[in-house]
Amino acid sequence: MKLTAKVKLLPTPEGRAYLLETMRRFNAACNYISDLAWNTRTFKQVPLHHLHYHTTKERFGLSAQMVVRANARVVDAYGLDRRTKRSFRELGAITYDDRVLSWKVHASTVSIWTTGGRQTIPFVCGAYQRKLLETRQGETDLALVRGEFYLFATVNLEEPDPAEVEGVLGVDLGIVNIATDSDGEVYSGAHLNNVRHRYRRLRSKLQRKATKGAKRLLKRLSGKERGFANGVNHVVSRRIVEKAKRTNRAIALENLGGIRRVRVRRPQRSTLHTWAFRDLTQKLVYKARRAGVRVVFVDPRGSSRECPRCGHTEKANRPDQSTFQCRVCGFAGHADKVAALNLSVRGWAAVNLPNVGEANRALHGSVPTSPVQTPLGVGQGS
Fold it and tell me: What's the pLDDT band for 190 if we cut at 50, 70, 90?
């Protein structure tokens, strides 16, 4: 499994100037190569390399390997789409490999190629990132983030084989409640939603004001809301995975592909489009893979309107956001908890279908188009 370790560089003023100049030259070289690729319609790595190598090296003062990296960067960009000419920001991130950047983790330094020659620069990181660096493998990106230099190193971790499970923990994702599991535990989104609302109101106020001071404050606030939501999602996903591992259960998640295309009223649009369900899902999946916990994706349709006791499904079963009451058998409960129970049952069916396990372990498993019913209680860890 590939992850990214983020470390902060602490260059001297002279080293900082060299890094900035290196970024400028590298991205200028990328733009030059991109122009050439676009004009000649040459998008393959080797033919493009032969077309510009000596000229790029002399014109931009880059080392041979940095020219190779710039060429690969352009080829990767056009690999996504050849209908649009690609351009690169002056201080955009640049890519290093082991020929132009070497790590000395025990000394907390890196030796990095710059236009001013090799520079030995100290770095700082937490114990978690330092442990990840022990399995570093592949390329490293140098990025300028809010005026500070960071290295993003690719690490390759071995993941344990998922164990045989005794049940499935269903997890219903939402906006009012970030997540609700089939054990009935609710991870409230009240604080996060209050923070989002406060930032949204402050941004609107500052944008209307439009003074230089307001713009400076907007710049300082940029990313704060996203960073807070990111931290909350880390905490919630870790707690869910730890519970599933402790109770020897798989995790059943909703397949929410296409949820952004749902039509909602205007006042609800900002709430829907700031819902970080994809980020939370990704964190749940990679933490589960590291812990050897299986993850299955199931069809969420009707999960909050279906009775987990008798299977009756209709819109009237859910009269409001938080209430569920079956119109046939009278079963009642919190709507999110009922949805999580149904996801648990569907997840148990998916876990036991032939040939589905491997696909789900690859994170893109097939989703049952019509959930298979199993008796209530199966997959709840009871």
Answer: confident
Q: How are beta strands 109-114 and 186-188 bridged, if at all?
A: unpaired
131 and 105 co-located in one domain: yes
Residues of 17-39 as b/e, b for ≥16 C-beta within 10 angstroms? Answer: ebbbebbbbbbbbbbbbbebbbe
Strand 2-9 with 148-156, pairing:
antiparallel
For the cut 50, the answer to whether the pLDDT of residue 366 exceeds it is no
Kindly state the percentage of the chain with pLDDT values over 90: 39
In which element (H, E) is residue 269 found?
helix 266-273
Same domain, 303 and 192: yes
Give CA–CA dist 241/291, Å, rounded. Answer: 8
Q: Which domain holds residue 21?
A: 2-156
* 12 and 55 part of one domain: yes
Higher pLDDT, 157 or 267: 157
Phi-psi region of 248 (alpha: psi -120 to 50; beta: other; left: phi over 0): left
Q: Is the same domain home to 105 and 222?
A: no
* Complete DSSP assignment for 289-346: HHHT--EEEE--TTTTTB-TTT--B-GGG--SSSEEE-TTT--EEEHHHHHHHHHHHH
Contacts of 62 (CB under 8 A, 6+ apart): 25, 26, 29, 56, 70, 115
**DSSP 8-state class, residue 144:** E
| Residue 229 CB partners (closer than 8 Å, separation 6+) | 192, 195, 196, 276, 279
User: Which helix (H) or strand (E) element contains residue 48?
Assistant: helix 45-60
User: In the listed set 110, 125, 156, which residue is the last one of a domain according to the structure?
Assistant: 156
- Domain membership flag for residue 247: yes
In the predicted structure, residue 55 carries a pLDDT above the cut 90: yes
Can you say how many angstroms the Cα of residue 86 is from the centroid of all Cα atoms in its chain? 24
Rounded distance, CA 58 to CA 38, Å? Answer: 21
Distance CA 374, CA 354 (A): 16
Q: Cα separation of 119 and 363, whole Å?
A: 41
Integer angstrom CA distances of residue 195 from 38, 190, 200, 355: 45, 9, 9, 43
Is the pLDDT at 117 greater than 70? The verdict is yes
The span from the CA of 342 to the CA of 239, in Å, is 21
